[in-house]
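Posting for a labmate who doesn't have an account.
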Amino acid sequence: MTRPGTLGELRSSGWLSRPVKHEVRDNVIRRIADGKPIVDGVVGYDNTVLPQLENAFLAAHDVILLGERGQAKTRMIRSLVELLDEWMPVVAGSEINDDPYSPVSHHARVLVAERGDETPIEWVHRSRRFGEKLATPDTSIADLIGEVDPIKVAEGRYLSDELTIHYGLVPRTNRGIFSINELPDLAERIQVGLLNVLEERDVQIRGYKIRLPLDLMLVASANPEDYTNRGRIITPLKDRFGAQIRTHYPLDVEIEMDVVEQEATPVQADGLAVSVPPFMTEIVAEISQQARRSPHVNQHSGVSVRLSITNYETLVANATRRALRGGEHEVVPRVSDLEALVSSTAGKLEFDTVEDGREEQVLDRIVKSATLDTFRARCRPEQLTEVVAAFENGLVVNTGADIGSAEYANLLPQLPGLRDTLTELEVGETPAAVASALEFVLEGLHLSKRLNKDAVGARATYRGRG
């Protein structure tokens, strides 16, 4: 469709100018009426965070998202650009997205005054109407608001001329959404300058005062620890936000699994078929859930969902490496692959312990507890009575990374009572799938104190308790 190219054509088209918050509100209303989420790609917030976010936008409020690391705050903020109209007209050549009906900058005002309805119009896509700044200690007023451009002064303009100003991120996001990540880390004097632009609409640059009636929606994020200890939001700026919304980690294992399956990057290699049984994904998710409840893990720093994602990816990677070394083409993670999660977990948990070596013990207990809880949720003890009896009659099974899947599959005739459990675990009966399910069942029986286990390095031997 041909869009109007001049101010006169824009008026004739019937286009109406709206404040950006009203624009967002109209699009939120449309999404809610159509039964669509206002934020795409975020799992687990349907009944908690998103209703509060909807209320804030319907009320045309600025928003601050408060939560620990890895709670999708930045993702939600960046996705808000989809709540803007796809295209927006601006005065041609404007640096701050001037509204053709109400120009703000000197350039746009002069152009509209001189050319009237012949003023050229450009159309800006919504992807260019989002501005973002990470609040770092070196952030300056010039970054956010602007500074005198010495090149423009050298061209012969006076310092008092508005055309000498190089606009910062905030003015350049006029008629859009501006985001500040980790707002408490922004120096208080910089917060004052930001407040002046967003509230009073006046700003002084090098002693020259100009009025910029900017049209912005302000969205910020903050970590609770930073919010209360490392820095603070000045009271006038805090008062600017109409809504403070607390984010959270997944409330249950099922949601954590959904996040993992959505976000994890699968291993892809020619000739390899990768399949992750649901119970292995559940163990990975349960590890994070257990860590968030552990008294030995510092809960103030949080246990990010990234822990589940990287653990899942590491689990699949280790299974892939094991399959390649064994000459197998089917990749199915096993319980013995969980040992590889130490590298992907160590940097994401802060332990509340001062004893050397205690971290590995805490992690080992978390992994075992997660495995046991998953086993109890997915396996019925009465179905495994025959399996336990086979071990009591002298059966011994060795497991480990160096044991091929075919060796596990050969054990099925000796464990006829295992077939019903394999069916319920939904793994199929390929050798790699049987190997994964068998290790899971054996480890679950051991943790349930129904089998004995001797572990040496990466090898484990299961036998009866008699």
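Reply:
Got it, the structure tokens are right above this. Residues 253-463 form one domain.
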